[in-house]
Fold these 4 entries.
Entry 1:
Amino acid sequence: MPDIIMPRLSDTMEDGVVSAWLKNVGDQITRGEIVAEIETDKALMELEAYDDGVLEKILAEPGVRVPIGEPIAIVGDGTASSEVSAVRGTGAAATRSSDAPSGLGSTARDAAPQRVSRSDTFSGSCRTDVVKSSPLARKIARELRVDMDSVVGTGPGGRVTKRDVEAAHSVAEPGSSTVIVTPPDASAVAVQDVPASGEFEEVALTTVQRVSATRLTESMQQAPHFYLTSAIDVTELFAFRARINATQDATGDSKVSVNDLLVKAVAVALRKDSSVNVSYAGDKLLRHKGIHIGVAVATPAGLLVPVIRDADRKSVSEIATESRDKATRARDRKLRADDMTGGTFTISNLGMFGIEQFTAVINSPESAILAVGAAADELRLENDEVVARKILRVTLSADHRAIDGAVAAQFMATLKGLIENPLRIVT
């Protein structure tokens, strides 16, 4: 019988976590059909079946980390799962709504309070073939001894979240072996009790956070960073953006952000001088022909960097549309592997949080990253007169093995000239 193995879904992936099985043992599957969700180092991705057949056995339960190439399930002709199918026909599967899609792990629920068993002998297992939930929610459920079968999920698609499990636990009746569960208000903020074991709470790292921590540590240890900061007058850039968006309003096109203009400006600067568009490779440098700008996006799972490919060849409007789409999909964990690979330079913008200046860690194997702060009104002396101008501070982090200080300084001068004369960005 053929195995379903843990695939390589990104260029940096070393292992993956089965987030949820969308098929049950005994279900018929078709080649190309989505059978599971896999959490990689970059996103939550769908796993397609390699062959037609019957899902005979699940080898990796949700929440288990599996190295690339290791089997996670077995597909066969259905012989081995006939007994399981008979049981499902009279047992667990009977709890599913008659009109629920087969194998999607959905259970008929309504908004009425439900009873969830919880005992001191709770085994820690949960029916993950029925309840869709996050690995962290399952971990919390095991620790709190909450049976997830009847917990009402408020996450996307009815997925049970950490907060749902905690809500179920928090309303337990003293001395009772049951919990009365009422679907929590999605806008409510869960109140955290101080852990009995100490004044801290253990929070499991997502795969994205774990891999990011490893790679950023490696970047700081291996790449000798140096930093250059430039204060750029963006008064004209803001006015230019306002004129563009006035036109976009008239045509119905997507509005342009300051960050979209900065992506285009960086791409044009890299096209003018490719000395910064490089990667260090031991005894040589790789000078990239394409200009592919990564844009850091904060998500609940951690920092993701979708890539705007060939940014120098795209209009600002095209960059705006693509950036908005990929940022949304990044937060929803719907990015594909090719959305996040092949970057040659990254921009990290914290200006929306009021941060005026910071330094960023290089996103290896790239050799530079630009940290963008918030624009602030400052007084400047022009022609012996004090005037108010909007000033934006950007800081370049560069790998000194690949980029000399003078080369980086020249790039920053080119970028500053483009931003302060925004027509040059689009012409």
Note: Residues 84-130, 172-194 have pLDDT under 50 and may be disordered.
Entry 2:
Amino acid sequence: MADDPYLNPGTETLRNKLGITDDKTLTEAERRLSQARGAEAARLTFPATAEGYRALHKHLFQDLYDWAGQDRTVNIAKGGSSFAAVPYLARELDKRFVDVGKQNGFRGLPRDEFFDRLGDHINEINAIHPFREGNGRAMRHHAAQLAREAGHPIRIAAIDKDKWMEASRHGFLTGDHRGMAAVLAAAAVRRDLAPEARIGPAGIAMLPKRAPPEGQRYRVTLTKVREELERYLPAARQQAAERLRGLIKEDASSSAIANARTELAYVRHAKGPVYQAHLLTYLGVRQVDAVISAQQTPLERVREIGAALGVQINAQQPAQLQRAVRALEKPVLPPGYSPGQERLAAAFLKNTPEQNHADPRLAPAQAIVDAAMQTARDRGESGRMVGTIRESTRQLVADRIKSGGTLDVEIGRMTSAHSALRDKDRTR
């Protein structure tokens, strides 16, 4: 644009506070400076309003452009299509954020619906393109803040840049926001995924790898270790979860988040510190050397105790360790129960009726449930009561499978437990 007041005269390089006249140098400076400001922005909150969005842009580009955070004063286009014309910028941006406010910032929505609405919102801001430069970075940080506050956090660093550009182009030309929604959803932190444990010998959970603990080591008996864990482990689990959430919110490095996940998995794991203390006692170990102090938080104390337990576990002979684990894990089941029957009962409850009918082992059990439901229907029971009878009969049958009992029982006997519920339902 020869008449673009944003450009240095006779060049295609934007005027900037650093006096850079080379496009490549300016691009690199913009990347570094906006990245540093972006790390700050991740810890700040900008109102989900047009003015808040302008404030975000100003924060990101304050080191480079005098016009950071200000609506552009020239019309711009890409791929032969024009973004919103200058006279309509402020009005369209206000309308966009008024709509977001009416939807409470997309809070309280299921994951898929949230990202669908977020993708539409970002697609619309992209069509407005309120700033002369830096629109993409501002949109990504804005999307991250909305996602964080709605409980569906995304990591800006995880956004695929090529797919972002393609979704932006496609959405701008067609109005279809689904591509943008998919790009943002793919960068989401999947908080529903369980933290991944670092597994050591015999399936034992281990802490993340780290340098040896520093500080004064004290000999602690395993009896004292169990007392310490009983006292501090619940709070340590809470602190580990809060630490992980904090790192995700701050968009910390992948390695830091991975270590926090592993640590959280360790303090929650069935073969975590408490199990390890019992295992070492079984092996004849009486004490461990731990770095502990009165100033430690519960998480720090459990971390140091866990490190001490890990040293002792790694010092054991693998074969001896495996024998001890097997000895501690012998199932204690009531008479008539077996692990195989436990698994069969679990499969019966998990399966659909069609799957149970297709399994010769479970078809008789499903037939009992079907018959109980049909009997209830024949009696004229309500739909709600039929559902209650179905679930209760399923549980009764599953209990029979667990105990090894036969399934050739009378349907009336299986459903007699529901008679009181049925009578109560009819008298309402």
Note: Confidence is low (pLDDT under 50) at residues 408-428.
Entry 3:
Amino acid sequence: MYRRLAVLLAATLTPLTPLVLTAPAAQAAAPAKPYDFNGDGRADLAIGAPDATVGGKARAGAVSVVYGASSGLKPSSYKLLSQNSAGIPGTAETGDAFGSSLASADLNRDGYADLVVGAPGEDVDGDTDDGTIVIVWGSKSGLTGGRTLVNHMQRENDHYGKAVAAGDFTGDGMPEIATGSSGLFGLNFVSGPFTKTGDFHGGNGGSFQDAVRPYSASYGIEYLSTGDVTGRGFAGLVVHGRAKDTDDAVTALVDGSIGNFPDWLVYMPSGYVSAVGDIDGDGYADVVVGNHRETSADPAGAKGGKVTIRYGGPDGVDTGRALLTVTQDTPGVPGTSETGDAFGSSVSLGDINNDGYADLAVGAPGESTGAAATTGSVTVLYGSAAGLTTKGAKTYTQNTAGVPGSEEKSDRFGGRVSLLDHSGDRRAELSVTAPGENAGDGAVWSLRGTPTGPTTTGSVLFGPSSTGITTSGTPHYGSTLGG
């Protein structure tokens, strides 16, 4: 059962000087789907390496974008982004951590998706780790040029950009950007429409410190995911933080259409990551929450980690359906729950087999296979009219036939997962990262979607050097994944 509650709220911000649109709304292009940066109908993949060295500056951070093609991801067709890239605001500096968070939406409604990149370690106006967020614009030729997103709450927060999300959160037909940070007002919205120049509009922000389950200001808002959970045609926001005075997870669904958005929260199962998609095809997006921790570290965790599914409904949850919890001990799920597996470290929803139901990929980067420790694995489970099913579930590792590469200790395969249609065939490809591959270089795998699930035939494997990122230091390529 959900709770409605009141929380301390920041004053709604007065909009700045309104932007003058250069064309009537009726002439605007249809909004592009997220991550389709060049408008070709195929999703592209953004890969964050926030620990990458740029221009000799350690942990300045970088992002590689690999474009989709009829055959799936095409690593030879990529765009390298850093704060030293032409057209990208700022300068790469030690510890900026550019690429720590990623999101996408067609922010200026020109028919090309744009990329939102967080750099929570950026120093701003003498304020250490104040953080910044950069919008990079999509175009027919792909990503090009960018601008810094306004921080309406600069005095009240730090690590701006440690989490980002983009979408229509208010139901006004225009996109917003949601930002997570540490400090008093951990969650903020910047209102659209967005343009490449000119003033930003206003926004609002709120604090969760006085909620029934208060969030910690020091940890702040650490992760955001989004989808139409209530079935009203616009997106809700799943907000992850830590409980006040602990480091235990706390998770809630936010309705941004309510002016005082913290007045209405639906508490979700506690976890550190989430994905939103319609698993059962009923028109309400469902929420999958991953909690990789052991119960000794977080009471809401489980031995080896777990994922919990909360089915969506008009009030944010379908109160007539029980929570579904899945571990590696769940009947039909391959493997066994073992301490340290970290099952649920990453989750993604997408339709792999084009049957109209969202399927689920779950990373377990702490899984040990053979004699090697923390090599990692990914488990795929399928959606159906009855909800998530374990029928046909399959686990993939670097030992799976057809998966390129060799597993090594601390690869952490499954550190991040993504299900997006990179080929345009309406079947999502499974992309998997191993940030620890090759002693911290990191790597990405992509497996094509088929009517029977991901296939290892024609699998793609590439590392940072293939997309322009130096292996100096430990870039941990794939620490974040857009999509």
Note: The radius of gyration is 21 Å.
Entry 4:
Amino acid sequence: MNIDLSRLTTEGRNPASADIDMLSTEEMLRVINTEDQKVALAVEKTIPAITQAVDAIVSAFRRGGRLIYSGAGTSGRLGILDASECPPTYGTPREQVVGLIAGGHRAILQAVENAEDNRAQGVDDLKALNFNENDVLVGIAASGRTPYVIAALEYANSLGATTVALTCNEGSEMAQVAKIAIVPVVGPEVVTGSSRMKAGTAQKLVLNMLTTGAMIRSGKVYGNLMVDVEATNQKLVQRQINIVMQATDCDKQTAAQALEACKGHCKTAIVMVLGQLSATQAAQLLQDNGGFIRQALNNAGMK
């Protein structure tokens, strides 16, 4: 296949860094930093599309569906990173948010030759997960032309699932295939074609928004506290105690006792303290209100 990379914004030469190899270390770093400052503004322009995607993901979660990322190289690794952070941060099942990368597990640590060009594998990886119409697929590729990802998007479309393209080039094939296109155009990289830089940063920012937004809308955040955090180490045990203290304005002993009574479930501990309820009563109240703390307290006549 003959590919004209010169037509891609992410492959263009950046005049701001044309002489970067002749600059001092500090000057070089200031060029990089100045370019990086453009990324958040590019992402800002895509918020309407990100909103559509977040709402689709929340809807999928409510019907038992999953969020699946598909990418190659840096893009695939970013998807895996985002997916892997959801269980410890939000207490989600490990199968609810999943990252797929062209070339499989080995490609997380090193490049796998020709993996991104393997269309069949893009489909097979989804089939291995029993991907279905209840799921959401987010295809990630800075170029917007990765065959592995395009094939996955096409397969997901054929099942009637929601598909999202996250790319940094306008008018890409991926953006045309997907039902929702998120396209932060960050411009040419400081080092020509090194899309792990600005494009990768833009992708990371968008992925942060997709999962954080979906988790907030799913009741896993109270105020700005991560109330479904899993305590898998001593730092997180202390974080749970701090969260309960911050959410209820109680003392450390009260927070620790509540967490012990409900076997370390932050949400239940918070409702216990605020509602002066037993662990069983608080757990039932949360279950009756879909896991939303505010809704549970309001429906029980508590603030």
Note: The first strand starts at residue 67 and ends at 71.
